[in-house]
Amino acid sequence: MVRFALTIYPYSLEEFAEKYPKEVGIPITCNVRANLMCNEKMGKLLKQMDCRNAYMGVECGNNEVASTLLKRNLSNEQTVKSCEILHKYKIQIMTQNLIGLPVENPLEVDLETLDFNIKLRPNFAWSSILYPYPSTELGQLAMQKGMFHANFEKVSVSNKTDSVLDFDDPKLKRQIVNLHKLFGLIVQFSFLRPLTLLLISLPLTPFYTWVFFAMYGYKILRQSSTQGLFNALRYYIPFYFKYVSQLEKRKEFRKQSYPNVE
Description:
five-stranded parallel β-sheet, about 50% helix, alpha/beta
């Protein structure tokens, strides 16, 4: 299966949709943006190209935070409409989300994002923990709020493990990190939603990390054919155990990569 990012005007997409099946004919996975996807024509063209999977950035379910902090310039209504079209044409949706934002009520905002994803019904709700890199607007904002100190010796090696923000309350930080680990699982099995606060409060972060990467790997690999899935699993399973077991044993971060930060 081919995956690519396509940023072209509709008339070019029409031409591509006509030629691609005839000249290439391989199923594709693509990245889409909600404001360009929320019309019937786009759904028909993607289906014509034999698009099987679409990655869509949702980032945050709170429209105000998404607009002011993340500069998304998208409405939730556009995202809902886009997902309805993708569902109609049986194109699997992989939403991409951010957890642990530098806002006054981070857990409340993250739960809004969780509930919004449940409403969207994606095949997989992918999430990452926000990394406010220095010299970026988000990094500066987090530093101004006293939530980020640009201490590279304490920065995790992966935005899939821990948050670098200081939330003051250790329990709150645990809840946010655990929510990230269980995000896709709860969206997939929404009957777990009433148990969310309990689950994310438990001191089970290492176990949840294994769960997260197991589901993450399965959902990504499942985009392949059945035969392709079994072949990929032969390589992913050893990688999975090696990667997760060693994930946080190395925390070295290159300061010279950010010369403007003291």
